[in-house]
Amino acid sequence: MKYFQYTLFTFFKLPAAWLTGVRLIYLDDKKSISSIKHRWINQNPYQSMFWAVQGMAAEFPTGILLTQEIKRSNRNISMLVLNNKASFTKKARGRIHFTCTQGDEVKDCIQKLIDTKTSQRIWLNATGVNSDNQVVSTFSFEWTLLLKD
């Protein structure tokens, strides 16, 4: 049921991500995984997935880890992507999974934000792999967090 709720979230709050096929397929305290399949709606002219669609699919697991920890903190915390970097190593075709495994770092960052009451920044990474477990792209997002209490 949890994953269905995130699908509804993308439908209402991130319609471009939903329409292009970004879906959350795994989430726990330490990692999250999104999935997207190369289709007509998200392709580029070179018969692979458009880079911006990969970016949406990569940002999702990083943001979900932050969102989950913010919710657990019961604090009013804003979050925003400040910077991002990406590299592409192979055409993205078929189903691509983007994984972020920095849940412990997210937890520490949120705790430091609450303890110090000063804004925090954290770089979170997502790696996209195809069905052959080959890396097609890697993304890094610098998130900024601000306690609004």
Molecular structure report:
This protein has 149 residues and is of the alpha+beta class. The chain has one domain (2-147): Hotdog Thioesterase (Thiol Ester Dehydrase, Chain A, Roll). It is built from 4 helices and 6 strands, in the order H-H-E-E-H-E-E-H-E-E. The protein has a 6-stranded antiparallel β-sheet. A hairpin with a 4-residue loop joins strand 1 and strand 2 (32-37). Helix 3 (51-73) packs across helix 4. The longest helix is centred in the middle third of the chain and has 23 residues, at 51-73. The chain is elongated, with a radius of gyration of 15 Å. It starts with a helix and ends with a strand.
Flag low-confidence runs.
Answer: none
Total tally of structural domains = 1
Q: What kind of sheet is the major sheet?
A: 6 strands, antiparallel
Rg over C-alpha atoms, rounded to the nearest angstrom: 15 Å
The N- to C-terminal Cα distance equals 31 Å
Morphology call: elongated
| CATH-derived architecture | Roll
The fraction of residues in strands falls at 25-35%
- Total helices: the number is 4
Q: Any idea of the CATH topology? A: Thiol Ester Dehydrase, Chain A
Report the mean per-residue pLDDT as an integer.
94
DSSP strand count: 6
What is the CATH C level class, in words? Answer: Alpha Beta
The H/E string reads: HHEEHEEHEE
Strand order of the largest sheet: 1-2-4-5-6-3
CATH level-4 homologous superfamily: Hotdog Thioesterase
Into which percent range does the helicity of residues fall? 25-40%
Secondary structure category: alpha+beta
